[in-house]
Amino acid sequence: MSESARVVAVHVSPQHSFSKPDVTEIELHEGRGVVGDAHYGVTVKHRSRVRRDPSQPNLRQVHLMHAELFDELAAAGHHVEPGQLGENVTTRGVPLLELPVGTRLTIGDAVVTVTGLRNPCQQINDFQDGLMKRLVFTDDDGEVVRLAGVMGIVSRSGSVRPGDAIDVELPAEPHFPLSPV
């Protein structure tokens, strides 16, 4: 992994708001998520998933998004800042979307295990018209491409701050590609 793999910004919101404000530090709690965030807990907190089955395990404790996406969106005419798409950790230098399920990311003192892709919702178009088609689309091979970051669970508690290095540990083979969680 690149020596420049690092945290750009961290975000938390106690409300189920679309965007999350920047903070100087977040605290990750093993098995629960980002302390003080609306998605904190052992069971699922995403409102539509709670309606379906509130006892589901929370595989979406931490949302990570790559800052390189914001660069691509800017080139397409969309101005998006870290935290505005609801992520908890904005990264740079980590190919998040290429990681297999079970990848362990050591970030600051904490470890996050990647569980899958974020499946973005209509709120993205409410935020900026036309943005959804930049984040979810069908490629030339007919495959659905999702670019809105990855989700993970906290495997070791700790603090995460902007500037923290990110170490990537791939799981044992066989590797399984990410799918929406």
> Which spans of ≥5 residues are poorly predicted at pLDDT below 50?
none
- How large, in whole angstroms, is the Cα Rg? 15 Å
Return the structural class: alpha+beta
Largest sheet: 8 strands, mixed
Counted beta strands: 13
Number of domains: 1
Instruction: Provide the helix percentage.
Output: 10-25%
Shape: globular
Domain MOSC: 21-169
Protein name: MOSC domain-containing protein
InterPro entries: MoCF_Sase_C, MOSC_domain, Pyrv_Knase-like_insert_dom_sf
What can you see in these coordinates?
InterPro entries: MoCF_Sase_C, MOSC_domain, Pyrv_Knase-like_insert_dom_sf. Residues 21-169 form the MOSC domain. This is MOSC domain-containing protein. It holds the Pfam family MOSC. This protein is of the alpha+beta class and 181 residues long. The protein has one domain (6-169): M1 Pyruvate Kinase, Domain 3 (Beta Barrel), CATH 2.40.33.20. The chain contains 4 helices and 13 strands. The protein has helices at 47-52, 67-75, 123-127, 132-135, and strands at 6-11, 22-23, 26-29, 33-34, 62-66, 89-92, 104-107, 110-117, 136-138, 144-146, 150-156, 158-160, 166-169. An 8-stranded mixed β-sheet has the order 2-1-6-5-11-8-7-13. A 3-stranded antiparallel β-sheet has the order 4-3-12, with no helix packed on it. Strands 9-10 form a two-stranded antiparallel sheet. Strand 3 (26-29) and strand 4 form a beta hairpin. The longest helix has 9 residues, at 67-75. The protein is globular, with a radius of gyration of 15 Å. The model has no long low-confidence stretch (mean pLDDT 94).
